[in-house]
Recover the amino acids of this structure.
């Protein structure tokens, strides 16, 4: 078999050679630095390579969107980040952004326009759905999911915040697995507990951790795979599974990782 | 005798109108304490939302059974009010069933519809009391939710009991009236052959067969008066109660947020400072931002974020007055579910309590009086604010589009930007973003290192 080589062009490379990518892949801080979520970034990049999408990343020129600062109440810091990012994005004449982080997605899509940054912003689950619908991504050649039970955890900033409920589910449907739903889903989905800056601090005193409450619900479906579409949900759900001592039998994956597995990438 | 009743009735009507007008003006003044924000845009979308969510009660039907029961009370409230028109005219003019001879064909049908609804309202109110006190639905229990302790539970019980009594008065009034008509007593007999028995109250007639004519007239008058005075008193009571949603629910939905739930409102006054700091040209805010209805910028920039009710937007304050304390927000809140102090319902109740306390201050110490308390600190604590995951489940759950999250975030902004009171780990996160361009302490130059692993 031919050894595949995956490439990750940067906007700077593209600009230097006078090219413009079809999409900018906004990796996000978790996708760049979090060991677990880097694997999601890599899975998505492999899919993009495999399909032959002309994409680029900002690489070292990317910076936090400012979302956690804004939700924690630090509007100054948020706007400093936003303005700097918008200067970079507008400098490269970026039109279309795809990101694997619902928080980046929400901020870039809904909050940057008022500060002068207007782009078409798509979550990677929506982008994958488009590729599957067009027949450009076929789940074949890799691991089979037939008969496996998968449950999907809605991310607040993808679901309630932006009403993206179907795209990740349709991506999972392409796996031909058995999609089982939790009790609280879609608009009623229960948060993983990370949003609003909670990820960056200890929870306030209570009787239980939110991620444990959510993981119990996920485990109750009998699924062996919890699919997520957000880096923070990824950590919270993985920690919850560990808390329940189920990490041997239950795995947490991002939707793009499952597609990449199905394609043997 | 008739004329005395007419005078008393007119007096009761005038007194009610006087009280309600006073209350409406006070509440309007309280809501206007909030910051200006234009919510008169996108009239089509707002109207559509109001028709679906307020008139159609779309979000109540998330739970079909409860939604249907609530719809019965709502429909009963609106439709039975048509009958109030006749009752008021009868009271003013000293007539009895004024419309009956005028619209003989439809009159019995109308009253039949009112009676069926009245019976429905009565039954649902009984079920709702059972849900509170026998089935003990969790979100309605003061033992589980501290914000309900005391007055809120009494308020709910008073409303349901009052509605039950009003419906009993209406139905037994019709029944006693039917018996008087059958017996041909006085003017009651004049409607013999014109007005038949009604659909529900006919079954209550046996209750009155043992009554003498005098006792029956006394009961009929008492029931009539109890019903109408009850409604007038209830109308005044509503302005003090969580039940105010029956009026404010409609404008509250009309003026509710139209943007995606995840979008936090921009602070144009900060945009300007940031642009100056970064050496960028200062742009005027494209969406108007804080520009008020007349297109004027506010004279002075207030504080960053909200410390008290006057720092919030007027719609936040209308939200507080519209809240029915049903607790769907709190039941959906991940923080509350897992035992944290935060309850979105309490945020709304605290905001209203704060407004009511300011009103009390006006009454006692003059119209411009302001005490030294504030919403943040004296009503809502930092622990509650810090527990929020901004998941918007509360916003989604509210049947009338109230947004507790918006208040939480504005209070957080004050805590962080004016008081520098963020939790220590948030300050660390801020400084990481500022210095390392990521919320964690990684070198920005390592940001692209992941790419080295794509082929391994």
């Amino acid at each position: 078999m031919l050894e595949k080589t995956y490439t990750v062009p940067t906007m700077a490379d593209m600009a230097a050679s006078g090219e413009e990518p079809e999409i900018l892949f906004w990796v996000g801080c978790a996708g760049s630095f979090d060991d677990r979520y880097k694997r999601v970034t890599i899975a998505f990049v492999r899919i993009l390579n495999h399909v032959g999408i002309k994409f680029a990343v900002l690489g070292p020129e990317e910076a936090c969107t400012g979302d956690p600062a804004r939700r924690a109440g630090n509007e100054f810091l948020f706007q400093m980040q936003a303005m700097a990012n918008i200067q970079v994005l507008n400098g490269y004449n970026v039109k279309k952004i795809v990101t694997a982080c619902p928080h980046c997605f929400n901020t870039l899509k809904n909050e940057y326009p008022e500060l002068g940054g207007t782009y078409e912003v798509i979550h990677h689950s929506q982008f994958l759905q488009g590729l599957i619908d067009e027949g450009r991504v076929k789940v074949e050649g890799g691991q089979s999911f037939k008969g496996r039970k998968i449950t999907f955890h809605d991310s607040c900033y993808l679901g309630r915040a932006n009403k993206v409920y179907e795209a990740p589910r349709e991506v999972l449907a392409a796996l031909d697995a058995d999609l089982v739903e939790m009790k609280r889903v879609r608009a009623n989905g229960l948060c993983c507990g990370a949003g609003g800056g909670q990820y960056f601090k200890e929870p306030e005193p209570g009787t239980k951790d939110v991620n444990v409450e959510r993981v119990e619900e996920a485990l109750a479906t009998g699924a062996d795979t919890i699919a997520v579409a957000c880096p923070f949900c990824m950590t919270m759900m993985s920690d919850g599974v560990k808390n329940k001592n189920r990490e041997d039998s239950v795995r947490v994956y991002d939707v793009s990782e499952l597609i990449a597995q199905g394609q043997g990438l | 005798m008739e004329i005395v009743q007419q005078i008393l009735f007119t007096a009761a009507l005038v007194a009610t109108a006087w009280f309600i007008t006073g209350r409406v003006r006070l509440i309007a003044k309280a809501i206007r304490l909030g910051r200006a924000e234009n919510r008169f845009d996108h009239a089509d979308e707002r109207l559509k939302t109001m028709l679906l969510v307020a008139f159609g009660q779309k979000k109540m039907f998330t739970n079909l059974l409860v939604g249907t029961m609530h719809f019965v009370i709502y429909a009963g409230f609106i439709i039975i009010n048509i009958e109030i028109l006749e009752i008021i005219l009868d009271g003013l003019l000293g007539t009895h069933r004024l419309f009956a001879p005028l619209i003989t064909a439809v009159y019995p049908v109308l009253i039949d519809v009112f009676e069926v609804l009245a019976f429905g309202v009565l039954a649902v109110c009984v079920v709702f009391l059972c849900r509170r006190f026998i089935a003990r639905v969790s979100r309605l229990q003061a033992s589980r939710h501290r914000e309900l302790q005391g007055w809120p539970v009494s308020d709910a019980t008073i409303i349901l009991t009052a509605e039950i009594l009003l419906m009993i008065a209406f139905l037994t009034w019709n029944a006693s009236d039917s018996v008087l008509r059958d017996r041909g007593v006085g003017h009651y007999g004049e409607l013999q052959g014109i007005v038949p028995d009604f659909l529900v109250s006919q079954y209550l007639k046996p209750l009155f067969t043992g009554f003498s004519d005098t006792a029956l007239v006394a009961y009929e008058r008492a029931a009539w008066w109890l019903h109408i005075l009850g409604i007038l008193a209830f109308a005044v009571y509503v302005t003090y109660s969580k039940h105010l949603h029956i009026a404010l629910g409609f404008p509250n939905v009309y003026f509710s947020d139209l943007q995606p739930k995840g979008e936090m409102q921009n602070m144009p006054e900060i945009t300007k400072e940031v642009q100056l700091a970064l050496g960028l040209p200062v742009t005027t805010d494209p969406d108007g931002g804080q520009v008020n209805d007349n297109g004027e910028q506010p004279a002075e920039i207030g504080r960053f974020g909200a410390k008290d009710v006057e720092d919030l937007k007027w719609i936040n304050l209308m939200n507080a007055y519209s809240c029915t304390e049903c607790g769907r927000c709190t039941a959906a809140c991940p923080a509350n579910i897992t035992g944290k102090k935060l309850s979105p319902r309490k945020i709304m109740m605290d905001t209203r309590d704060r407004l009511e306390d300011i009103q009390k201050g006006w009454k006692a110490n003059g119209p411009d009086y302001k005490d030294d308390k504030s919403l943040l600190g004296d009503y809502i604590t930092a622990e509650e604010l810090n527990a929020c995951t901004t998941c918007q489940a509360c916003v989604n759950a509210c049947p009338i589009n109230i947004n507790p999250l918006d208040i939480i975030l504005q209070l957080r902004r004050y805590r962080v930007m004016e008081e520098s009171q963020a939790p220590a780990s948030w300050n660390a996160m801020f400084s990481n973003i500022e210095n390392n361009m990521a919320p964690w302490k990684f070198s920005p130059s390592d940001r692209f290192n992941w790419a080295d692993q794509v082929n391994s």
In short: Chain A has two domains: 11-129, 140-263. The beta strands of chain A are 23-26, 55-56, 96-99, 120-123, 149-152, 178-179, 225-228, 251-254. The radius of gyration of chain A is 18 Å. Residues 11-129 of chain A form a domain with the Rossmann fold fold (CATH 3.40.50.1860).
